[in-house]
Amino acid sequence: MALYGAAALLGLLLARVFLGMRLSVPLVAAALDCPLDLSRSNFTLAASLCSKQEDRGKCCRYINALVAISVSRYANATSNLGVTSDLSDLCLRTISRTFQLYGVTRNATVFCGFGTKIPVRYECHGQSTVTQMLQSPKFGDVTENCKVPLSGDDRCRKCLNAGILYLRNLLGPVDNVTLSTCRDATFTALTSQVDYISTIDIASCFFGVQGLITPTGLSPPLLPPPTSVSPPAAASPSQLSLTAPLKENRHRYHLTLVPGIGIAVTAIAIALIAVFIVLIHRKSRELENTDMNDETSTKAMALPARKFQDGPSFMFRKFSYKETKKATNNFGTVIGQGGFGIVYKAEFPDGMVAAVKRMSKVSEQAEDDFCRELELLARLHHRHLVALRGFCIERHERFLMYEFMANGSLKDHLHAQGRTPLSWRTRIQIAIDVANALEYLHFYCDPPLCHRDIKSSNILLDENFVAKVADFGLAHASKDGSICFEPVNTDIRGTPEQLHPCISELH
């Protein structure tokens, strides 16, 4: 009986260990020879995010970030961008089991593409080591712009912009899985050179998630040094004078300090007043030159500025009305017209050729469409989506500047008189290009997007007949991180008879 009692007690203790304590990947990996380490990961938060449909996008980014951090720690020790090919499958199984052990469902890892879109072995454009990545062109710009801390929005945005420019220069046009893998390789090479806490800071910026490690995984805060009569040897002279002043000099020091502070505060106040006067004068002149006092114009200026603060990047420029008018030859080069307004061809002094879309009327709905398209295109980057080059908001006028598509729209080639018919090979390639754009919008955007107005006039062709999708004024962002999971506004949007595949979400 005593033996059975001891066995039962041992069983209870083991159950307590497995249910109440956190099991780290190194313990599992040690038995299976997987070198990746996820011991400080916040699995509790990962399981919580992956249990909610509305957080699926964040769940995938969270899983991706945890795996990338473990690969980064491995790269710090080996200089390799991931495990060797013979250990890849083993590590994928090990990490997948560990995620499931802490409550992350298998459906979540399958949905996020664990093992395909989220590998444990990164190879980017033939580069598989940290040294190769660090020596590739323009990687120094990434290192320079991603110095920690990256807690501020501006610092994080500069870091992400540098990473995007680096990958564009390195890869050119590629599929999204390759782009995602190379982004993870860039993160790994960058963080393999810094400590663990800095790695977490950079990961929060790269993947847009917080709370990647458990509070117990953080280093304890440094305690203040004990008070002593003699100051520490490493203290600076200013610290010595403030922490341990001589008693006989204390009153004289205060008498000297008070007038100095008064003079400094007065000087700063005068300087600030002068700056405010200059700014007010300049603003008054701008208001005289531009008629922007109505409520609609105020909304148009404020809405994009507010929304873009959350975006990962903002890479297009703002043009003035004068520049726009001159580039379009006084709005004399019309190349198209749609529900939004007239489209002009513009040639700017720096050599840039653009298609300028002009809002035909300023209303609340038109402003919303304008701001929605501006916001969406600030976040979207794909070779089969028409790229936004800039915008203009001035004098009750609203303009969007897109890359110029030399061969116009697909509608022109299908229905216009006197056009040479497109070959079947070209037509099939155009269909493939549009399918690639829709795949990107549906499965790789966060949150995914339904265009809701796909038609031949919104499919534009460049000089090589490469197709690109345009006009995002009616795009709908899914709220739950996936496509068509919940009912949305049941009003059919866009052109009648042009039913988008995503319209099935209305049933």
UniProtKB/TrEMBL annotation:
Keywords: ATP-binding, Kinase, Membrane, Nucleotide-binding, Serine/threonine-protein kinase, Transferase, Transmembrane, Transmembrane helix
Protein kinase domain: residues covered: 329-507
Protein residues bound to ATP: K357
Keyword Transmembrane helix included in the entry's annotation: yes
The organism's place on the tree of life at top rank: Eukaryota
GO molecular function per UniProt: ATP binding; protein serine/threonine kinase activity
Pfam family, one: PK_Tyr_Ser-Thr
Annotated TM spans: 257-280
Keyword GTP-binding: no
UniProt name for this protein: Probable receptor-like protein kinase At1g49730 isoform X2
Source species: Sesamum indicum
